[in-house]
Amino acid sequence: MSPLEVVRRQRRKEARPAELAAAALSLFIEKGFAATRLDEVAARAGVSKGTLYLYFDSKDALFKAVIEEGVVPLFEEFEAKLETLRDDPERLLREILQGWWDKVGSTDLGGICKLMISEAGNFPEVARYHHDAVIVRWMALLGRAYAIGVERGVFRDMDVETVRQLVFFPLLMQAVWKNSMSCCDETRSLPDSYFPTYFEMIFRGLRAAPVQESRP
Amino acid sequence: MSPLEVVRRQRRKEARPAELAAAALSLFIEKGFAATRLDEVAARAGVSKGTLYLYFDSKDALFKAVIEEGVVPLFEEFEAKLETLRDDPERLLREILQGWWDKVGSTDLGGICKLMISEAGNFPEVARYHHDAVIVRWMALLGRAYAIGVERGVFRDMDVETVRQLVFFPLLMQAVWKNSMSCCDETRSLPDSYFPTYFEMIFRGLRAAPVQESRP
DNA sequence: TTAATAACTGACTGGTCAGTAATTTAGTAA
DNA sequence: TTACTAAATTACTGACCAGTCAGTTATTAA
Predict the structure, then answer these.
(1) Which residues from A are below 8 Å from B194, CB to CB?
(2) In CATH, what number does A16-69 get?
(3) Could you tell me the distance in Å between the CA of residue B72 and the C1' of nucleotide C22?
(4) pLDDT tens for residues A115-168?
(5) The CATH number fitting domain B72-206, selected from 3.40.50, 1.10.357, 2.70.98, 2.60.40
(6) Residue A27, Cβ neighbours under 10 Å: how many?
(7) Structure-derived torsion over alpha carbons of residues B38, B44, A29, A64, reported in degrees to the nearest 10
(8) DSSP state of A211
(9) What pTM was estimated for this model as a whole?
């Protein structure tokens, strides 16, 4: 009838898995794993449920794929900074944290954090994989950036575990919040002053010497 | 047969609702709302599913009850502090934050945070209720404690919204983490140095004057 | 054009679980 | 003891949905 009708039954073998994974990710975040219907995932990806099963063995396999693909090797980039910015620990930490927000926290990948927190109990093995492959690695990176600062006498020497949590959790929580409470909290976009204030707070807490009030 | 068998079919009308709500809360946190079976909730509370329906109209009603009862009026206590500690803003903030951890974050109530984050998308009206009745109120309290410090010249003047997030999110995330990633992160108990380090970091960031290096 | 293949579809099935109703038993008062 | 009431249980039903499969259509090779 309608000549402008969307083309049905395209054959696009290559694109399907990524499209299905993206659809699944967004629905898992919105509704949770258990409450997400595979018919819905398929519909959002523009295919039928049967097609979904051509690419993924089961609902669990789909979940696993969504998490594991989202892990992307962003780490190389971050870890490279460790080498190039060894001489300026404060800038190193700032760029790592800002980088995480720009590349993960503020993007779709940020939703994976919320998803993993929600579903860890139901997928212990996926949670463990994600924990070892992402969380531990990321926290180690933060810890090393901080340790470099301590070595150089730029940062005070405190409990590493505690420090990296205090530094990172505000950003992480921000990402989680964004993907769950958006219905309540209107227009969850950060004010321009957010990062300046954030870094000012963090670094005042970390710096070994009190801020110079430049009195010559 | 077994003479020591647990007594079946006790009549304990008064205790049932609280026991069922507690069982439901723990299961909702572990498995999520959708993945939790009412038979299981009933079993954990030591009754049958039919009994559950004597006290709660539906699964949704059970969820709502769990959230709303958990809201408890802890606020009176916290808000009272605002009056009694007006003269020492730093101590005021410290006691409010420590109080939240002792009374909420480290207890079962902390699980409600994780639960609400996970299920907000599926229960917008409950999420809104919780947002207005708990989150907004709590954040306002924190904001006022900070504002008092600014008025007195003890704290630097920054964006209130940003500051209260930076101050509170580490604790909140800690509570959420505890209730989801416990399977991976072994023995999630905070080191003794956690709160001293936390407060030291926070207050260095907030204080208007640099730390006195006591040079007479 | 036609035949062969591979991507895709959607109706169907079997198991699961929220919610119900008939029945049993505990507690109580006469 | 007995009769009564209400708490609790058990067996059931109907909707829903993960996963399957027989059939359909797009694409390519001959």
Answers:
(1) 159, 162
(2) 1.10.10.60
(3) 39
(4) 999 999 999 999 999 999 999 999 999 999 999 999 999 999 999 999 999 999
(5) 1.10.357
(6) 22
(7) -110
(8) P
(9) 0.92
